[in-house]
Amino acid sequence: MEKGEEKKPLLCLGEVVPDFEAVTTHGKIRLSDFKGKWVILFSHPADFTPVCTTEFVAFAQIHPELAKRNVQLIGLSIDSVYSHIAWVRTIKEKLGVTIPFPIIADLDMKVANLFGMIHPKQSTTAAVRCVFVIDPEMRLRAMIYYPLNVGRNMDEILRLIDALQTADKYKVALPANWRPGDPVIVPAPATQEDAEKRLQDAAREGYECLDWFLCKKKLPQ
């Protein structure tokens, strides 16, 4: 941190996220209105910009899949609600895509500062491309940050939701590049006795073990 710069607090995984009220293209909302659902809160630098336009089309395309997973999508940028409305209408007119989720008009940067979306080395007036995954108990479960000039990967966002929901449901961990249907990781034993038992019981439990600390299994379909 350079001299004179103020260090902003960073949200931590596992913490309950701060609640807020905001004006959106769907009217006023409170984040806590969505308790009981998963929430993806994402920021974009500005309306009527090329990368952001491609992203909003892509988010609209995965919106039905997110809805199947009980996920509420919420966008945000430091633009007015009138700019948001005009941009959404332009996307519909020019690209034939309807934006079905609310977009926060964060002109005072209240939410952006609350969630650490302003990175001064990128811009002091625009949010970077943040993705916050919030669970039904309003706890922050994942964060992804992209720079202003690189668009997000929607396949990874869907994969991340599937991974988090699978981990919660089955109390397992997920390996690198995991996708639904792939084997999952059984939590490692915590004692020497359990480690020995893990290897003895591996075949009976249907585990595929590289060693005592790394065992995988297939989930029921």
What does this structure look like?
With 221 residues, the chain is an alpha+beta fold. The strands form three sheets. A five-stranded mixed β-sheet has the order 5-4-3-6-7, with helices on one face. Strands 8-10-9 form a three-stranded antiparallel β-sheet, covered by helices on one side. It folds into two domains: 21-152, Glutaredoxin (3-Layer(aba) Sandwich); 171-221, 2-Layer Sandwich (Antioxidant, Horf6, Chain A, domain 2). Helix content is 32%, strand content 22%. The model has no long low-confidence stretch (mean pLDDT 94). The chain has helices at residues 50-68, 81-95, 110-114, 154-170, 192-205, and strands at 21-24, 27-30, 38-43, 71-77, 103-105, 129-134, 140-146, 184-186, 208-211, 214-217. The radius of gyration is 21 Å and the shape is elongated.
